[in-house]
Amino acid sequence: MHLSPQASAIQPDIKPHLAPLLVGIFTAITGGFVLFGWAHEITILKSLNSAWVSMKPNTASGFILAGLALMLTAFPFSPSASRASRLFALLFGLIGLLTLAEYLLSWNPGFDQWLFPEAAGTVGTSSPGRMAPDTALCFLLLAASLILSWSQKKTLLITAVTLSLLVAIIVLVDLFCHLTNPFDIVGLWGLTVMAVHTAILFTMLGLTLAWGTWPRQISVWSLTGRIVRSFAIWTLILASSLAWNLRREGVETLNSAIDIARASIQKDLCFRKWATSHGGVYVIASKKTPPNPYLKVPDRDVLTTTGLALTLMNPAYMLREMQNNFSDNYGTRSRIVSLKPLNPDNDPDAWEARALTSFEREGGKEFIQIHQLDGDSHLRMMVPFIVETGCLKCHADQGYAVGDIRGGIDSSVPLAPLLRKQQEDSARISLAYCLIWAFGMTGIALFYRREHRLEIANLQEKAFSASVINSLPGTFYAYEDGLRLIRWNKNLEAMSGYSADELLGRHPLSWFSNKDKARAQAVFDTVAETGEIKFEAEIVFKEKSAPFLLTGSWLILGDNKYLIGVGIDLSEQKRLEEGLRQAQKMEAMGTLSGGIAHDFNNILSALVGYTELALIQTQNNKPCHKELAEIIKATDRATKLIHQILIFSRKQDPEKHPLQASLIVKEALELLRASIPATIEIRQDIQSQSTILADSTQIHQVIMNLCTNASHAMLEGGGVLSVTLKDIVVEQKIMDGGTEIDPGHYVLLTVSDTGCGMDQKTLTKIFNPYFTTKAVGKGTGLGLAVAHCIIKGHHGLITVCSDPGHGATFKVYLPVSTEKAAPALETADAAPPVTDAQERLMFVDDESAVCEAMKTILTQAGYQVSTFANGLEAWQALSQSPADWDALITDVTMPEMTGDQLTAKALKLRPELPIILCSGYSEILDVTTRKDGVFALLQKPVSKNILLATIAKALGKSA
Fold it and tell me: Taking each helix axis from N to C terminus, what angle separates 79-105 and 57-72, rounded to the nearest 10 degrees?
């Protein structure tokens, strides 16, 4: 049966299945008891009633095999049980097949009598020892069903179920025949009928096998289940109707035979009465009709007056001679018999003696049975002889009185002609029923074909709906009457953490936090009026809560009303909004800091310039000189701080250029020192001087993110932040988190801390966007995700290792570039003032204080200096006399004409003119903005020595 193992990781249930085991044992034991009854002639074991049909030995043997085969199906995971079960099924199926061949081919090999012989003339049997043909058919169907039940194909399993149900239907029809037939003469196939206990066993086997074989994954209420049920019901109805009609045909055949027998007996009775009324008849004695030696009357033999010898034929003699001489003319056999006959020829046989005894004991007017005569089935009927007055003439001395039962007249009607007619009529009826059955099955098939198409369409629609619902970006819900959750999508299960059983029937208010329940109730109360809902609320799940946007409306289907809708998780949107606010805040801060830095640098430029002038003028006033030197140092620190602010405030698309990694690391650490607590010690080991192809701003951002995270991990107890930079050679591929780098030369940046560390679960998520271990409002969860993205975009690799309580170490691999790094901003050491220079310099700046300070410094250095407040004034002067100017020093950000515009015009007018750009704004700090022809870039505030040294180099180069 359909209990064989499947390819699954689940451990199969190896316990035997109880129903087939018990039914199989009962069937095998019953078959054994029947064989025991045959061996010891115990009638009650062969038949439940002595007047009923017995179970034949071959049938009992078949049931033993069938019981064993069914028992073994209780062990579905045993290959040996499977093989043995199918072998037993083949054996009892072969018994059924051979028996059917005997009936269909009129073949009698004699194996029906091999085990135990059965006498001819047994009740309900046309062939002694042979099982009924419907029994043989049931064995054949049951064997096929058992063999198919071990299959894994659904179609074969359904076929096995159908065959099992057909067995049950056949035996139920046979039982119906037993219950409605007064004589055990009519089975489905004629005179041989199925024994009652045979039918009971087949019913148990068929139903148990059908139940056990039914595929568990197919519901009995499914389309397949309905088809099988319809087939079984339709077949049962037609089989019952056919059985009723065949029974009626059999009864009519029986009644016809009874009518013939009665007519024959009535003829004999009438003849006897006539002969009795005359006291007999005198006939001429002859060899054919000799005197009756058993007739003891004085005038038995007489002579006529003519001398003719006559002998008396009493009524019994007359009737017996007519029965013997003329029975063939009537097609029946008749006898007159008595338990106390005068003539031994009237001695009864066993059946006749049983009939006469029945008359004497129980009375009755007729005794009828089917009996075998000369190997053929006959209907035998006997009616009693009642002693009349005329009978006493011959039988008075036997002690009979008028009214006594003297004997009986037996009439035997051969059933073969009647059965042939019955079989012809039954064949026509069966053919008609087969056609009706076929038409019915065709109708059922067409009906369920339409049902199948509708079900397929329905399943496709459901699958489509489920796919649509499950593909929704949020959660889907459907509440019956707005009270019970009856449908949802997979997202709701995944987000909520609840199982399907836990979700089914949940009330909508159970999702809301206490602060939102009242508001949610108010929204649900108004949905009947508005027809829809749309509001934001905090939804509480099994292990977390999240902000959701809930939308929904009523769906009315007939008498049913459903509140359906979608919930959108706003967590990511809230995080994005917070991230956007943070980004906008940072952008605003960057813009503000850039502007402030520009203005502050201009102020510092004037401050530095005048302080340096004051230093020159107070060289002999040492106390004052010392204070002025401190001012210079302070402005230098302010300059570096502004430089870091400018780095922080840059806003530009990433552009990769060759640069020295060590410079960026040093700049980042300088900025970091002012922002971390003093309890955290920064240790740096910068060994690499290699060039990398990178965007300086992005690399600066990576370093700041890593170091900031490290410092946050040590806020409570302090610690050591270690930053190392060195050159390494990677000899084989390194892969981490789906990113890999090829062998080659790399710059390795290592950032380590002695903080709290991370567990493995956290390590798997730290590069995910918006993942943060910090408190709400303390971090966006974007720092490491951005760092990972930046390093990957630079064809590098970032790795992390950490253990709880042992800090964390991040390693960043960046490939070394063979390109040369661009020159950095001018940071020349202090140079001695130039005292003999006579070149004419053009100095342009929109800050008058800067112009005055620089003019004084440059004039004292021996240069002829002209200052201009903007680029337009400078251009006008330059364009009037281009050859009069030896160098151009200009600010970048100015009104009317910027330094860039002035530079472009000047280079077009005089390509060889040395130009030095100065700026306090962030854009000019990036060396990538240097234009061809510009000699140097100077960051404000520019010290006197740097300015003079740069001018000297520029003029020396031009010379």
Answer: 150
